[in-house]
Design goal:
DUF7707 domain-containing protein, mainly alpha
């Protein structure tokens, strides 16, 4: 049985559209050079915020998993989370994927509405940006990557359209859990940083 070229082209186009619609964002999809650069900037930002490398004993970023953390010896980091290099890049990547996935919409009206939704749910570098689940308690523990679609203010966001399945997440608890997770991670890093600083001081006194 012969299959016309038109049918083959149509099937190929449908397959391409399906692939585009299933495109999912994850920050580790960035090339190794981009990840290394991001991690370098992340660590430098932490050290600057803490007051220098010696004041940032828990500053880390893993370029393989993009797990990052910042713990100062003398204070809690006060740089807005949504402006840290890794979370900011995570938001930008999710926004780009959202827009790419809009191109698989059937009509121009659908695409326009889709692009508008992307803009409203991805207000990167602001407290209205979606929470990035890339922070971790140490460099060897991979981050969650995907979590509830809430902003840093704790507001529920719409569909991020970045290809990640959040249907199994509890919307009623998502805002509280996201805020708690971020605070717990920061507290753990603060405690670890204090422990490191105390150990260094003890060694100096003993010497």
């Amino acid at each position: 049985m012969k299959i016309s070229a038109a049918i083959l082209v149509s099937a190929a186009a449908a397959g391409a559209a399906s692939a585009a619609s299933s495109s999912a964002w994850i920050i580790t999809s960035l090339d190794s050079g981009a990840r290394a650069n991001l991690c370098q900037r992340q660590i430098q930002t932490c050290q600057n915020n803490c007051g220098g490398p010696k004041s940032a004993p828990m500053s880390f970023c893993n370029p393989d998993t993009m797990a990052w953390g910042c713990g100062c010896a003398d204070k809690t980091p006060d740089f807005e989370t949504w402006n840290w290099p890794v979370p900011a890049a995570d938001c930008t990547g999710s926004l780009s994927t959202c827009r790419d996935n809009c191109n698989s919409s059937s009509g121009s009206g659908d695409r326009n509405a889709c692009f508008t939704n992307c803009a409203s749910t991805h207000k990167c570098n602001t407290e209205d940006a979606p929470v990035s689940y890339t922070n971790s308690t140490d460099a060897d523990t991979p981050p969650k990557y995907v979590g509830p679609a809430v902003s840093y203010k704790g507001d529920q966001l719409g569909d991020l359209n970045d290809g990640n399945d959040r249907s199994n997440l509890d919307d009623d608890k998502s805002s509280t859990e996201s805020t708690t997770d971020t605070a717990s991670s920061a507290a753990a890093l603060r405690c670890a940083a204090l422990a490191v600083a105390a150990a260094v001081a003890a060694v100096a006194i003993a010497a």
